[in-house]
What we know:
Distance between the termini: 43 Å
Shape: elongated
Mean pLDDT: 85
Structural class: mainly alpha
Order of helices and strands: HH
Radius of gyration: 21 Å
Low-confidence stretches: none
Largest sheet: none
Amino acid sequence: MKKEKKASKYSPGERLALLIFGISSGLYLLNILIGKASILWGWKVFHLGNIGEFLLLFFASISLIAAALHRETAEKGKQETNQQKEGGTL
């Protein structure tokens, strides 16, 4: 028996961008919580400074924008293909 391949909602490029977004956002949130805990309880643990936090948020925002633009391009391509199949012109 052959396994049927399901059409995925996201392309590999979108998945990668969303994965980077999720990891960057999660690390940023974890860093915030570690920093707050170190202040409250006097822990001497490593946490990223201002530049590290900036870079995490930068990567998260760029990857989210890339995923959104990729999705928009894919949807626009689907619409153009559907219009051409129906005989309409742009």
